[in-house]
Structure formats: C-alpha cells, structure tokens
Amino acid sequence: MIYEMRTYDLKPRSLPEVLKRFGEGYEKRKQFSPLAAFWYTEIGPLNQIIHVWPYKDLAERARIRAEAVAAGGWPPKTSEFILSMQSDIMIPWDNSPLLEPGEVGPIFEMRTYTMSPGDGPRVQKAWSAALPARQKISPVIATWFSELGGLNKFVHIWPYKSLQHRSDARAQAIASGTWPPSAAPDAPYTTVAQENKILLAAPFSPLK
User: Fold this and answer.
1) In whole angstroms, what is the distance from residue 95 CA to residue 87 CA?
2) How far is CA 41 from CA 49, 50, 96, 110, 174, in A?
3) Quick one: which of 197, 166, 150, 160 has its CA closest to 48?
C-alpha cells in the first residue's frame, strides 16, 4: 500500500470556500476511491490543507486519477485559491496502523523529520523498538517514509483529544526515559530538519 499526501498552500481567508468546494467534489470523487483523511492546519504553516489518498500502488493511483478526471467534476474548482502544491508518495512501515475512518482526534499532530540520505532503515529500527512503550501513553496512527516527492522524509502522526492531552502525553513519555527514541551505537542516524503541524479534520474527512 502507498499513501499520496497532497499539501496545498492557500491564499489567506480562502480556507472555508476551499473546504466547501472540496467537500462537494468529493461526493462524486469517492466512487472511484476513498480519502483516508483531509486536514487543515491550525498551528504551524497556516492556510494549508493536506489530503491523504490510499492506493494499492502507483499503477492504481494513475488509473483512478484518470478515471476521476474523465468523469468530470474533479479536481474541484479551487485553483484560484492555491498558491503552491506538493505531492509526496509515502510508504508505511510494516507495523504502521492503517488510516481507517473513525473519530480519534480532534487534534492531530503531524511531525515531519528530514533524515540524512540512507538513514531510513536505521530510523525505523530505533523507532520500532521504542514505539510499543510510547503507545501505552497515546497512540500513533501513521509512521511513513517518503518514496517520491520530498525525499528522506519520516512522517509520524499522533491524535489527541486536546492540546492539553498532547502536552500531558509528551511530558509523560519523556519522563518515562524511553522517549524520544535514540539512535543505537551500531545504527546511528542524523536528523537534518524537523517540522510539526497541528491539524484539524475537514467536515467530510473520513478520519476525524
């Protein structure tokens, strides 16, 4: 399975209209394949939307996108509001949960770490060892590494009931001494850059 994560930067004050048009367009688009999630930023880079689409592989992605466009009504007419667009193809780790419809938020934290080239397997080794203890405090819903688009990106997404829940869970995890994960001496890795975003779900998002 792959996830296409599409990130659009919007003109200020255009978000309500963009969400309206996407929601209307999705009613027809979902007959071809479902969204996994549709978020907009609340903290971090503002005026940004992120929509995530699951596909079996790149061939299925190409076929479904072509069918949706040929049927008309897709993509939604939002180009007048879009300043920039980025598409990243993400590969979930073997132990990454699937993004399933449901209510697990309403706060989502998306953390994106850019790693040194070639460090992906070492990151996965260290994090896979540390995640079971961390998830006893609060769950992670995605651990992905980029395959196409911005390379060497490690994306992990955490749902919380509130910003206070986030603060409490992170403090508890750090106090436990098991978090954040550390690179093992025999498998060192380097984090080049880090970014986090606090996201809210669009009304039509299957995952909220």
Assistant:
1) 23
2) 6, 8, 23, 10, 26
3) 197
* pLDDT 10s digits, 119-145: 999 999 999 999 999 999 999 999 999
Model pLDDT for residues 147-188, shown as the tens digit of each residue = 999 999 999 999 999 999 999 999 999 999 889 898 767 778
Domain ranges of the chain: 2-201
Q: How far apart are CA 125 and CA 127, in angstroms?
A: 6
Find out whether 152 and 146 touch, Cβ atoms under 8 Å. yes
- Res 188: pLDDT: 87
Helices and strands, counts by H and E, the chain: 4, 8
Number of other residues whose CB lies within 10 A of the CB of residue 113: 19
> What are 197's two structure tokens?
């975003």
Helix (H, G, I), strand (E, B) or coil at 156: strand
CATH class of domain segment(s) 2-201 = alpha beta
Q: Whole-model pTM above 0.90?
A: yes
**Among the residues of the chain, which ranges form H helices?**
15-29, 58-71, 120-135, 163-175
Helix (H, G, I), strand (E, B) or coil at 139: coil
